[in-house]
Design goal:
Helix content: 25-40%
Number of domains: 2
Shape: elongated
Order of helices and strands: HEEHEEEHHHH
CATH architecture of the largest domain: Orthogonal Bundle
Largest sheet: 5 strands, mixed
Number of helices: 6
Strand content: 5-15%
CATH superfamily of the largest domain: [2Fe-2S]-binding domain
CATH class of the largest domain: Mainly Alpha
Distance between the termini: 64 Å
CATH topology of the largest domain: DNA polymerase, domain 1
Length: 203
């Protein structure tokens, strides 16, 4: 039971029965505003919480997977301002004001993103655990190709156009591991969407 001094009683600082008590501010938390899949979320987070844990544990966006939690497997890949990053290696508080897209934001069950549809068509997965990261990575990779960004295996680093050979594709997707070994289907799916992009409007 709480006890109160005469001064507190005279000032009226004693709470009445049933009066809700304000929660003490947690000094370990900080307010963070995150824009994810075109929705703005106001959160209270510890500064050390990763973007991956924020997406999964605080926002319920479990499509982004936790694999190695060390940046080695790529299962946690998401898009930040259109660029692919491994969300286990970055802190959520670093991305206030950024445009974050997860696999849930790329398409809907009745309107799949072209890469999602192509992965299904070409069996670009088996267990499916790595698939969200594979697709997010492929979306950004095709944008990099469109922009003419060179890779480690590009023959001409000054070229403004990229010839997306199988070697180029393997190098550019090497940060995303498929432990089931569905690489043939993954490459075929990406190849199909890439060829569609060459024929029509960019995605």
């Amino acid at each position: 039971m709480s006890s109160y001094s005469i001064e507190q009683i005279l000032r009226g600082d004693v709470p009445r029965v049933g009066q809700p008590q304000p929660l003490a501010a947690d000094p370990h938390l900080m307010p963070v505003s995150l824009r994810v899949n075109n929705h703005v979320y106001m959160l209270q987070l510890e500064p050390r919480v990763s973007l991956l844990d924020t997406l999964r544990e605080f926002l319920g966006l479990t499509g982004t997977k936790k694999g190695c939690n060390q940046g080695a497997c790529g299962a946690c890949t998401v898009l930040v301002n259109g660029e692919r990053i491994k969300s286990c290696l970055t802190l959520a508080v670093m991305h206030e004001g950024h445009d974050i897209t997860t696999i849930e934001g790329l398409g809907q069950p009745n309107q799949l993103h072209p890469l999602q549809a192509a992965f299904i068509e070409h069996d670009g997965f088996q267990c499916g655990y790595c698939t969200p990261g594979q697709i997010c990575s492929a979306v950004a990779m095709l944008r990099e190709v469109e922009q003419g960004d060179a890779s480690f295996v590009s023959e001409d680093l000054t070229a403004t156009e990229v010839n997306l050979t199988d070697e180029e594709m393997r190098e550019r997707m090497s940060g995303n591991i498929c432990r089931c070994g569905a690489y043939v289907g993954i490459m075929n799916a990406i190849r199909e969407v890439y060829e569609q992009q060459q024929k029509g409007p960019r995605i």
